Amino acid sequence: MSKIFTPTNQIRLTNVAIVRLKKGGKRFEIACYRNKVLSWRNKLEKDIDEVLQTHTVFTNVSKGQVAKKEDLIQNFGKDNHTEICKEILEKGELQVTDKERHSQIDSLFKDIATTVADKCVNPETKRPYPVSIIEKAMKDIHFSVNVNRSAKQQALDVIQMIKKEIPLERAQMRVRISLSGKDARKVRDKAIKLATSVEEENWESGTANIICLIDPGSFRHLDEMIRADSKAHGQFELLNLKEMVEGEQAL
Fold it and tell me: Where does the Ribosome maturation protein SDO1/SBDS central domain start and stop, copy by copy (predicted)?
């Protein structure tokens, strides 16, 4: 029986996300796990082993062709595959099919709209907008999603752009929470987790009085939680809005 010969400079990989970088007239590619490339670029994933399927630089991942040592030295000034993989990961272009790209764009579009809705209010009503309203405003201004930037980064751009379409203000809500009864401390702990910061908190005769800041997107959830969990022993009210100054707090 004849044996199938596989050249030593070929590696077969399946179900990969390919990142490609052209340098010095040559093509270099790396094989990554799906959904991990953007996580690495957005600093969410810090373990390179979770991103790379193999610490190998290819000229063609699909054919399993490994880059030659002399080509790496000539174009990158080194032949350390891991270090070169990191450079390609940072500067290269993620290769995706048309179907994957459309799905990625749709998902990112919704994530951007959700982020804007969570962080902003209608200054006329002092209430957040539904995500559908933000999505419509984004479509009206023909906002173009950049798949190489995170939803949070692009949400900052969208906030400035759609102000021309709808009244919009980036703000946090300053609210007062009053809790009493035997479940007061348990409800308090759940409420604090939804706050971005606590400005005042005091306990008097078993009653908690808390003033805190929350993102607009948390308002309805917090209101419903206090109503349900405090068993009519809780009060929740909006005091005012704290407008967020650009750069004061990251999205």
Answer: 110-171
Backbone angles phi, psi at 188, to 5 degrees: -60, -45
Amino acid at 164: K
Amino acid found at 61: V
- The token pair at 61 is 């991942």
- DSSP structural state of residue 67: P
How many Å apart are CA 141 and CA 183, to the nearest integer? 48
Q: Percentage helix, strand, coil, to 5, in the chain?
A: 40, 25, 35
pLDDT tens for each residue of 56-108: 999 999 899 999 999 999 999 999 999 999 999 999 988 877 787 888 899 99
Asked whether the CA dihedral 37, 94, 58, 73 is positive or negative, the reply is: negative
214: CB partners within 8 A, 6+ apart: 172, 173, 175, 194, 195, 196, 222
Q: In what order do the strands lie in the sheet with 93-95?
A: 65-66, 58-60, 26-32, 17-23, 93-95
- Read off the amino acid at residue 66: V
Sign of the Cα pseudo-torsion (182, 185, 188, 190, in order) = negative
Burial class (CB in 10 A: 0-12, 13-18, 19+), 11: middle
Q: What's the mean pLDDT when you consider all of the chain?
A: 86
What pTM was estimated for this model as a whole?
0.57
Q: Are 194 and 222 in contact (CB under 8 A)?
A: yes
